[in-house]
Amino acid sequence: MKMYFLFLSLFFCSISFAQTSISGAVTDSDNQPVFGANIKVIGGAAGTVTDNDGKFNLTASSKLPYIIEISSVGFVSVKVTITSNNQKVNVVLKDESNLLNEIVVSASRTPERVLESPVTIERMGTAEIKKSASPTFYDGLENLKEVQMNTSSMSFKSINTRGFATVANTRFMQLVDGMDNSSPLLNFVLGNLIGVSEIDVQSVELLPGASSALYGANAFNGILFMTSKSPFTSPGITAYAKFGQTSQKAAGTNDYVDYGIRMAHAFSSKLAAKANFTYMKATDWYATNYDDRTIEGRDRSHHNYDGINVYGDEVSTNLKGVGQSLAALGLIPASAVNLLPSYNVSRTGYNEVDLTDNKATNTKIDFSVHYRPFGNENVEVIFQSKFGFGNAVYQGANRYYLNNFFMQQHKIEVKGKNFFLRGYTTTEDGGQSYDMLFTGININREWKDDKTWFGQYAGAYVQTALAGATPENSHIIARQTADQGRFLPGTPEFKTAFNKVTNEASVLTGSKLVDNSKIYHSDANYNFKDLIDFAEIQVGGSYRQYQLNSHGRIYTDADGPILYNDYGAYTQLTKKFIDDRLKFTGSVRYDKSQNFDGNISPRVSFVYSGGESRRHNFRTSFQTGFRNPSTQDQYIGFNVGSAILLGSAPDNLTRYTETLPIATTVGQGFANGTSVTINGTNAYNNSYLASSVIAFAAAGNPALLMKTNANLVKPEEVKAFELGYRSFINKTSIDINGYYNIYNNFIGNLNVVTPLYGDALDGGGVTNPEGQKALHALQNGNTRTFQLYTNTELEIKSLGLGIGLSRKVYKDFEVGANYNYAEFKFDQAKDPSFEAGFNTPKHRVKASFGNEKLFENFGFNISGRWNSEYLWQSTMVDGMIDAATVIDAQINYNIPKLKSTLKIGASNLGGKEYAQVLGAGLIGQQYFASWTLNP
């Protein structure tokens, strides 16, 4: 409370200082206004940006005379000396076609030209956001070189680089104003749910590939930095409103709205504040993939159908086994059992579109207070709060509807010219989120329990078979009989059951996801460049604590939150040689995670600037990175219907327990009871590889059975080599890079089947009494399937190439293109049960063409992208994703008198729907019109 009173008092305190005010305009060589040009006092704190008319006003407390610098991407910077109060400054910026002179920070944690970056880096600023033909700036990131977007939902999109893409991408980090946007419980980024408003974006920087040497274990595949605007340099009120429609064959045509406002004010050279509010609402892409999950060509007419976007049909049992139970109870003659086939049938499921309201919403609110005690950038104290909530669909092992999901972050940071010290906390609340698979399963059970349904199915099958019906017709009539009275979507009975199930957390009767997890994080950095002359040296470190709290629904935390922590420290040295043409950067980081030994991540890079103008820049780097197993990998204990997802932390294996019924009389004799209690050690120490169980079931040969030999999960390692070249030749900007990665102890999933009695032995152990018991368990369904988190002992290699080109081709027409090649090598035959999940197209091509000055106040841009088909592997479903071609376009018009910009845009103009995630909805078309008001 004292802190809040302090900030309130700072708002209203009176500060006396001498100020000067200047104003002016910035135009280009064609006398067109330059929007978004930066005006900054050199050596001071004051700054601002130009409006749509290229005009600006700046108030500074610096003593006269002082110098301001006017800069904008694509132009040569200009410096002007200010000698008097109310001085008028009118500047003409000359074109600077070499866009590689932009300043970036993320590559080395210090400002440097992108041309001299030691690693590949991509950037998006305010000018690029304005040009983007995508509905949002976050969607527009997909057009950057190296970026692969994975859309699980319209409001949940996951970014990845350099392979091994998933929706739940624990290998990729996203930082907004220095805060990690990852979910505390699940360790992956929830798109832009709690990110930044597009009217508050100052810059976006992307580092593809391993960045562990500076940013820690989670920056394994890459890291995205989003920096918001400062209220000191970007004051005023900005607002936008978008309205449009989405079009999809399954969902039809639906409205789309997105609006927001930003308010920022510098009360003085010492105190400033800002606040943002954004809201988006749309109808989500309907997920209507009704292919069978495992058997190609199987459809709903099959007795054991299990549809990808159908839930409840995962409940399946052997029909002959049902008959045997009925005969034992005297409900059917023993001779009738032979009429029943010995294969599985599944219950009738519900389509995903009937289990959600198919709404995608996102509300973001943030505010911050900035205090500079000395009136300059030497020291700045920031208090920032961010809130994000909404609806989305997340796809992992199942499809989960994040309903009224809520996440918040709070940060206190002290930063200066050469240092920062920050601490923040992230908290999330699952709201009314639920698992759609268990929603379907338990709505069925609310109406009729599994035992009754399968008994009615078997009884009806016997009757029709005795009457001479074919097996196909017997199955049809049996299902119709068992489904009589089933709760149909839209009926009051269905709605009542749905509400009951989605409000109950136990998977035995409900589907609600419970989550109240937290992260506490702190990090610091100091740059000694003003104290040490011979080289630029930085040191830094971080500490993080997780509080996992799913109340036993997702993790094994039924008895209370699981506490888990990690920490790290790093140092970096940068030195220039040979007349500053050769830049060496070396860094090393040590990280220690609670359950694992410490790891050291070194990085070494060289950048050489050749040519008279130093525009031919060659770079090479080598680094080792590592990824600690995520909290999921270690502590999950999650029933997803078809399996238990089980983390491998030693205490997690003993904490996870489950009591399961034994189905047959003989089995009950082997198990010494009607039920058995197992824990996680059974899954790792007494199980068969699921792939060998499938082969055994198909061939009936016990010799095919293979015992699981999985180790507990440990950190994953990568050795990353990269070569690159950046230049400007004949008015063309060029960026070429190639990489080669070697992975060891690659983390993945392994499906295993644990018999509830007996010993799992290679070859079935047919001569061993305990092996015979385990065989009996397999043959009679007395098993539990687990999905384990482990490492493959095989080495995995990936390599890739990226080429980016851009230039002005005629007057102000700009064209850009980039190409990415990606491939990985893994000997699947040597580890057939391990899924690496590369999930990346081998070929991707992106291009853009536009002109922001086609004629007065009018601009346009067209962008397109193509990718080849690729294999998608996930814990939910495997299969091929087709090649796709997508064209986006926009036109914009500035209204200087109203300080406004109008934009009309469309995505996927060709209209062919395409997939980015197997199991998610196909992406259709989106049209929008937007109005943006600038200060």
Mean pLDDT: 91
SSE class: mainly beta
Strand content: 35-45%
Distance between the termini: 34 Å
User: What is the number of beta strands?
Assistant: 52
The main β sheet shows up as:
22 strands, antiparallel, barrel
Stretches with pLDDT under 50, minimum 5 residues = 1-17
Task: Summarize the structure in short.
The protein contains 15 helices and 52 strands. It is mainly beta.
Question: How is this structure best described in words?
Answer:
By secondary structure, the chain is mainly β. Helices cover 14% and strands 44% of the residues. The chain is built from 15 helices and 52 strands. The strands form eleven sheets. It has a 22-stranded antiparallel β-barrel. It has a five-stranded mixed sheet with strand order 10-15-16-13-14. A five-stranded mixed sheet has the order 35-36-43-42-39. Helix 6 (436-447) packs across helix 9. The longest helix is centred in the middle third of the chain and has 17 residues, at 450-466. The two termini are 34 Å apart. The model is unreliable at 1-17 (pLDDT under 50).
Keywords for this entry:
935 residues, mainly beta, 22-stranded antiparallel β-barrel, 5-stranded mixed beta sheet, 44% strand, disordered N terminus
Sequence-ordered SSE layout with sheet pairings:
Elements: H1 2-12, E1 20-28, E2 38-41, E3 47-49, E4 55-60, E5 66-71, E6 78-82, E7 88-93, E8 103-104, E9 112-113, E10 122-125, H2 126-131, H3 137-140, E11 148-153, E12 156-160, E13 172-176, E14 179-180, E15 201-208, H4 212-215, E16 222-228, E17 236-248, E18 252-266, E19 271-283, E20 310-311, E21 316-318, H5 319-328, E22 344-346, E23 350-351, E24 359-371, E25 379-395, E26 399-416, E27 419-429, E28 434-435, H6 436-447, H7 450-466, H8 471-482, H9 492-502, E29 518-527, E30 536-548, E31 562-577, E32 582-593, E33 599-610, E34 616-627, H10 631-635, E35 637-639, E36 644-646, H11 650-655, E37 657-661, H12 665-671, E38 675-679, H13 680-685, E39 688-689, H14 690-699, E40 716-729, E41 732-744, E42 747-755, H15 769-779, E43 783-791, E44 796-810, E45 813-825, E46 843-855, E47 858-867, E48 870-872, E49 879-881, E50 884-895, E51 900-907, E52 925-933
Parallel strand pairs: 1-7, 13-16, 36-43
Antiparallel strand pairs: 1-4, 2-3, 2-5, 5-6, 8-9, 10-15, 11-12, 13-14, 15-16, 17-18, 17-52, 18-19, 19-24, 20-23, 21-22, 24-25, 25-26, 26-27, 26-28, 27-29, 29-30, 30-31, 31-32, 32-33, 33-34, 34-40, 35-36, 37-38, 39-42, 40-41, 41-44, 42-43, 44-45, 45-46, 46-47, 47-50, 48-49, 50-51, 51-52
Helix pairs in contact: 5-7, 6-9, 7-8
